[in-house]
């Protein structure tokens, strides 16, 4: 390592920006996630733990359900170290199943219920779960997995069964709107070879003497693309996840145990939602309001019943809630803290959100491999919009040469971010080569992100290493080009990717325009030329109605690339037509 620059990092200059009450180090938990939920059940028994479409479940009731579900799973043969797949949207059954699996010392494997059969097959083949708890609308995909991938037991979950009686009755009305809403939530079909979850989880509770997991045991396999390559299972231990929950508690000391309401608008099967809502919220005895998907009106209806005090999310969620609340004359005051992640948080979003709520909105940073939160902006005046903040307590970072991670970069010079802390994962499931590439000696995780760090420790993300575009031997950061396109008054969203060419890659862009704007690709390229070096200017710009995004709002660059290439191929096939008559792109 470069001695002089390493000494600067070792001094942890970011500590000067910690708000009062935030410690440099957390007291490391000694218990597992099972101990975490047991503590909240004991401490906050009468407090509402979960709310789902208005139906309330207290911590005492939650504890009883977890114990009964654990016994049901034990009778199915689930034992310590076994993998149990959860294929569920946000619902009370997911929370119960999550902690019930962990109570047995087994391993939770989270899946997106909207995955295709092919995606599910790849992941089930990798982790080998023998039991799956599945949303009934996704059960057919799991039931039809080929042998030996198909799990031996499939437990089907009906979301409607956990709704209040009046809601269930309303969904049974012979009205088109009711039928449509019901069809989105459940299916009437009963699949051969599956059993109903609710038939199994209301029986006897597990023997208190049954073996419990330790803090070093594996708790969750969370599938991710990681820093490179195809999706693989990140191994998160109980220690990783309880540490990250403890770091979150330390970061927001203003939250009061047993008195907060946290909205689960993020999917709990994603690492961000899992920690912020499923473990962190439960660790402070908060009321967790569950939404099976993000819907502005559902969230605003809940604000009238049980206003949120803390809202983890992504920028589009905050933007849409502000517009929706104004339309319906609903106040968002009372949301004291909001943490945004997964993508860049625009300054304009911060401004309008804080004006409307009177609370704070700050940006954080994390990876599935860091359980997931590693950095955050201070919840106070020291926050710095445009950055992802500073390291969490008990977390260290370095900025290094991506080609030589033993060499630290000077302050202010871009390099790859390395992270070390108790929340850093222990590797990828059954992938020793990928694990060795991601985890360096000394416990340092390669993030795969190019960042700069200021002298006082604030980090700004430049781009993902794997998303850098190499054109004519030069590196182009897509984010830099996107930011310039977004400065154009007609552009409301932009995504930039590299498309293979004779020079390596060509810079290409897809843009969404404001209503009524005319698409002029050459004018947009000229706008970029005034702001960017020539090799960074998009060679082609395509207009799209919307950008493809993941469930948490992150732009799916692979799909953007496919869209652009399809447009180019279509235009090449009909080259006799002028550009204005073809798909909207330009050179």
From TrEMBL:
NCBIfam families linked to this entry: PRK05605.1
Q: Which organism is it from?
A: Lacisediminihabitans profunda
Q: Which GO terms describe its molecular function?
A: ligase activity, forming carbon-sulfur bonds
CDD domains registered for this protein in UniProt: FC-FACS_FadD_like
Q: Which Pfam families match?
A: AMP-binding (PF00501), AMP-binding_C (PF13193)
Q: What PANTHER family does the database record attribute to this sequence?
A: AMP-DEPENDENT SYNTHETASE AND LIGASE, LONG-CHAIN-FATTY-ACID--COA LIGASE
Q: Mind telling me which InterPro entries this protein's record contains? A: AMP-bd_C, AMP-bd_C_sf, AMP-binding_CS, AMP-dep_synth/lig_dom, ANL_N_sf, ATP-dep_AMP-bd_enzyme
Q: Which domain of life is it from?
A: Bacteria
All copies of domain AMP-binding enzyme C-terminal, residue ranges: 480-554
Q: Could you tell me what this protein is called?
A: AMP-binding protein
**Domain AMP-dependent synthetase/ligase intervals:** 38-429
